[in-house]
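How it folds:
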Amino acid sequence: MTASPSPAKSRPLAKLGIAALAAAGLLISVYLIADTGFEAVGQAFASAGWGLVLIMLFDLAVVSCAGLAWAALTRPAWKGSLSVFVVLRYVREAINSLLPVAQIGGDVIGARMLTGYGAPVNVAAASVIADKTLEVLSQFVYTIAGFLLLAGRNGSSDLTPGIGLGLLVAAPLLLAFFALQHSPAFAAFERLLLKLADRMQWEGLGRIAGLHAALTALYRQPIGLALGFLLHGLAWVGGAAEIWLALQLMGHPFGFLDCFILESLSQAARGAAFMIPGGLGAQEGAFLLIGGALGLPAEYALALSLMKRASQLLLGIPTLAAWPFLERRRPAPAAG
């Protein structure tokens, strides 16, 4: 009997591709900083001093808000502790920001880890899919608001047509992604996964039965959906407030609406480059281009990006260190 090829054999190529994207993004980031001037960017970054601690606290609040959004959406189906959702949201964020995975790897792991606290596998997986959908939809609204503010400024930027075209392309894709989750095609995909699990004897994958039903149930509770959407929106606006605070600390005050435009559009650029680990290069390029259109000097735009990355690093490393201990909460597979 011929052995079936192992999925693990394809992983080195996937890892190599992601590593190549990460390396390319890092080189772009370094080039942009070098072109602007290491000394100028370093001085702008250092001018914030201990203000980095305040930025870290802001990051904690923003990630906690996103964790509460996940909880608000999920708790009608599974009464997990709010602290569980917040802690696991930190894990999702740390993995997506710091590890060489596409920026959705942490979400997959977050769903798996949620089962360790008692959530059924189908509910855990459905909750992450629905939470990610709400997060992306709220970000789209956030990006539209930033685009409209940019378009309404005196002397509208040359970037406006390109950003508008990007939004026109993204809108039907988001609607299609949302519609797919409600369509019979998703249920057919679930059946295909279950057949594959049975054939390959993947017990863990087999426990995902009922995913489509769980996802549909989550979307049928308007209060949870509305609260999750609003909390994600609050988290996005909190990112703009963080930009405003960071520039205040650097001694280069910037209007809040301009900070809103900068953060909303740069986050959209980073989201579009989701295959690049941590959005390396995409975030720096977006801050440079959009900040320049708003009148922000290049050294401050890049120092802002570095400050956000420094905060993610200082918060993410302890979270990743705690990850193995949190994984121990995962339950043993149920007896068949």
